[in-house]
Amino acid sequence: MKKNSFSMIDENGNEIVYDVLFTFESEETHKNYIVYTDNTKDENGNVEVYASIYDPNDPHSKLEAIETEKEWKVIETILETLQEEVKKQMSNQGNQNNEQ
User: Fold this and answer.
1) 63-78 confidence digits (pLDDT tens)
2) What is the pTM of this model?
């Protein structure tokens, strides 16, 4: 198992491997969050991304559901910011390749 991945057993008894995209602690909620994916895509071709609350100090931490709109808004804002950064980097790389 890679360091930045983990596996869970789904309701059918299948092991699913998830890649960790990032973790963070929210100053607003004082909770730690993990954002991860199983690299499947939705009907629009977007990669499915999940988020949960976890305890970074417990190697066997159970993932807890995010239940408040406020918490989801914090995560969505971070995801949107990261997406914009990736788009900028890809655009800059494309421009550098065109200049060569």
Assistant:
1) 999 999 999 998 999 8
2) 0.79
